[in-house]
Write a structure and sequence with these properties.
This protein is α+β, with helices and mostly antiparallel strands. The chain is built from eleven helices and 14 strands.
Length: about 325
């Protein structure tokens, strides 16, 4: 299952599906590279720890898949942060990916507006997000400057926002597909819901810069009345874009369909080369010591305002872990 032209023996795609993995792939005949992400226990752990309404959980699941796909491209130890801020019922999504494979996420939303959207059958991702912006930040560490790209949210979903980001910021022809859903599994206490998520990212990366030429972004800086700039799309990218458009949601989350089989199903006619899959895990960096250090940084008056019923309680937004301190514990540490 690869490109026979480069001398690597072919093999059948793995039949066993493995969750919480990132599978890099390349289709050399079309100058395509990409990744397939398959999430099971990792995304389920994040979403169930918050008990969000299903539409909010599904939207955050899409953001997790997108962040994992983009963050896994980092070639150094660092963080990739995806954050939305918008005027919709879901006003903020935050996902942190720490290389090589740790992810955490949370959402802020208006429960009444989400319920109203569900009742009005208007809980599509784009409508839940509304208008605002999506920020993607690369953090290389305290001694390095951050890189941030912004893209507007204009009532569409995260797939469209990702396409806009790559068109404007990276200028790399890119297509993304995201899927999130619940499944029911039998358990000792009866059926239980589990979240699953998956995605595929495909990019056109030819060696020739001329083949990467794209039309100027509309409206550009041309004088009024100027005919739009047009560039014929490369045939290889036309084929790749058409192939990824055939991917169904079920294929991305099917627990019985391996990532390798999906890659083969899409690109076997051209030959697809897969690389070693990398693991992903749900992991929050919060700790009691870290929270204690944070509390010590506040003035005494602020800490006094935090005391309720004789204790200070801090809950992590990412993993919902709760840390309880007696006021004298913090004061004694000063």
């Amino acid at each position: 299952m690869n490109d026979p032209q480069i001398g690597i023996p072919t093999r059948a795609p793995a039949a066993e599906a493995v969750d919480d993995t990132i599978l890099p792939l390349a289709v050399k005949a079309l100058d395509l590279r990409g990744r397939i992400v398959r999430l099971g226990p990792a995304v389920d752990a994040i979403l169930t720890s918050h008990d969000y309404p299903p539409p909010v959980a599904k939207l955050l699941g899409e953001a997790i898949v997108l962040t994992v796909m983009l963050g896994s491209a980092l070639k150094f130890d660092g963080r990739f942060i995806l954050q939305t801020q918008s005027d919709g019922p879901v006003r903020m999504l935050v996902v942190n990916f720490t290389s090589p494979g740790k992810v955490r996420a949370c959402a802020r939303f208006d429960a009444e507006r989400v319920a109203a959207a569900v009742a009005a059958h208007a809980a599509e991702p784009g409508k839940l997000l509304g208008r605002g912006h999506l920020a993607m930040t690369i953090d290389q560490g305290p001694e390095m400057s951050r890189y941030q790209g912004l893209v507007p949210l204009e009532g569409n979903g995260l797939e469209d926002a990702a396409h806009e980001y790559f068109a404007r910021s990276e200028q790399i022809p890119t297509r993304v597909r995201l899927a999130v859903a619940e499944e029911f599994r039998a358990g000792p206490n009866g059926p239980r819901r589990h979240w699953r998520a998956g995605g595929i990212l495909l990019q056109f990366l030819p060696n020739s810069i001329d083949r990467l030429r794209q039309a100027d972004l509309d409206p550009g800086d041309a004088p009024p009345g100027t005919l739009p700039h047009a560039v014929t799309e490369d045939e290889a990218w036309t084929e790749g874009r058409s192939l990824i458009s055939t991917v169904k949601d079920l294929e991305l989350i099917d627990p019985d369909l391996s990532s390798e089989r999906l890659a083969y199903r899409l690109f076997h006619e051209r030959g697809v080369h897969v690389f070693r899959a990398a693991p992903v895990e749900a992991h929050c960096s919060c700790s009691r010591d870290g929270v204690e250090t944070m509390l010590r940084s506040f003035p005494q008056a602020d800490r006094d305002d935090m005391v309720e019923n004789g204790k200070i309680t801090v809950t992590c937004e990412f993993c919902s872990s709760t840390y309880i301190f007696a006021p004298h514990e913090i004061n004694a540490a000063d």
